[in-house]
Amino acid sequence: MAFSSLIRLALKSAWSRKATLILSLFSVAVSIALLIGVDQLRNHTKAHFMNSLSGTDLIVGARSGPVNLLLYSLFHLGEATHNIDYQSYLSLQKMPQIDWTIPLSLGDSHRGFQVLGTNQDLYRHYRYADKQALQFAAGKPFNDLYDVVIGSEVARRFHYSLGHKLTLAHGMNPQHAIEHKGQIFTVVGILEPTGTPIDDSLQVSLKALEAIHVGWHNGAPSGLTLTPELARKLAPQPQTLTAVLVGLKNPIMTFKVQRKINQFADEPLSAILPGATLAKFWKTLGMFEKSLWAIGALVLAAALLNILMVLLAPLNERRREIAILRALGCHAGDVFKLFAIETAALMLSASAVGIALFYGLLNLAKYSFPQVLQFMPSLPLLTTQELAGLGLLGILALALSLIPAYIAYKRSLHDGLTPKL
Amino acid sequence: MMALSPNVQSALEIDRLQFSWPGSSKALLQVPELKIAQGEHLFIEGPSGSGKSTLLNLLSGILLPQQGSIRLLGQDLAEMKNAQRDRFRADHLGIIFQQFNLLTYLTPIENILLSLQASPQKAAKVENASREAQALLAQLGLSSVQNNSHSLSVGQQQRVAAARALIGKPEIILADEPTSALDSDHRHRFIEQLFQTAASANASIIFVSHDHSLKSHFEHSFRLTPAAEENDGI
Asked: What region holds the MacB-like periplasmic core domain (chain A) (predicted)?
């Protein structure tokens, strides 16, 4: 029979069994959506993660492991065991190979969000993603001692706008942080979203952090509090920093400068390469990635078994159908083709439904958790890897369809025109 | 393929046919000699277990005999390749089963037209396929037919099956107890209608049945005898 007639016949036959077929189509579609979702989310998270910093050649902090230093300086996860001396920062600035630096002083918070003590070099030199600088959605960098610039997420969460007054608290834990009472900061700038931890931070000057901690000892507040007027006048120079981001004049010098900093005479320092350390850290997350894949693969295996079942189940009732076709002169090979066509159609529709399902669920998730997925496009293109995976899945399903097709073929040879039912 | 001229040629020639299933020493089926001319009809009578199904599969080229030969329209089926036998069946045979003849997911008309899709040679002999299908149905006593194959009565189903077997003017109609599900009144009428329609196409009907009351309709008959009593009617 002509192939086009076979296709029509296979589709009509499949449609007559649509109840079970549509169910199995959806089970395959769900696992396809899941696999695409896992892969897209993984790629997105990785890109997002790797994009947190760009253009910074070294991160310098107190002597510690590279991943640890990366986590607390960049992602504000965990705390620095030691600070570095402000004098070391000044010495770094004087190194001839160094182009720019961004000082970072951490430890305070506002309603659970990290306060970043820094200077205006942050807005001048900080780059993320594809060498993008920080952009102001409103306002300007801090200037006065009691100015604060807030990240997009902080603004979104608390509906802060320019001119809003707020206080900072000592420590990160919102329950135990001690508020710096009487030290009122004014929001002077709001940053555009970046998809980096900057979104979740409030930035003030190093001097401001110094001023609100005057008289504090070992994390305990002092009875003495400076009035804003006095603080502006006295504004002591900072003593310590948490970390320094460093940009070099020539990236070729990176290893040389790194070695030099690691052998810094005045105090033990560590300099890490952010890109390499990010990659290293991402690798430690590999288990997570692999388990997501494993779950996806298992769901897929279940879906494929389901296809097999759906093809095998009606084999008996289809013996009559096959005998009729054989009587009409169809080759036994045509029986084989009918099954392959049905499986191909099933897989094609399952893939289409699966992709649509993925886009639907993604946008539902984007709607429900905007802050988590705001940098994920609404209709992300499938990667070639994912398309290849879909292709492979189709081939696998076709290969599986050979089993029932072969059984049907063998049976049709044995039954001939007179199946015993 | 040799040119076929009706009425001169024999439709079926069986010569010392023997068939047994592989591994079985006893012959399941034996037909010493049988010959009918094109346009003549043959009644093959056999009780269950006499190898009717096997003979049907042999006649349609699905099975091949171990000994002897079957020639349809002068051609030995055993000399053809598998695909050629399928092609021959599509082009020159029309087959009607005992029951469940129709693909229920197709309309009755689509069922009939399936014959033409399977055989370009049959298709070439029909000018307006769906009109021809309607005409055949009318000739077989079914002037109007629903679109749903499910809701046809058995008698209607058998008529649609007969139309499917007859469309495209195949030389031979193989009928495997097509009337067994009909009551006796309908049975004779169906056979008469089948004969009339076959006559206008000059087709030979080979009719297999255990009901010898139908034998009187046929000019030739042959009785299959169970070759081995212990076999279970394969």
From this structure: 22-211
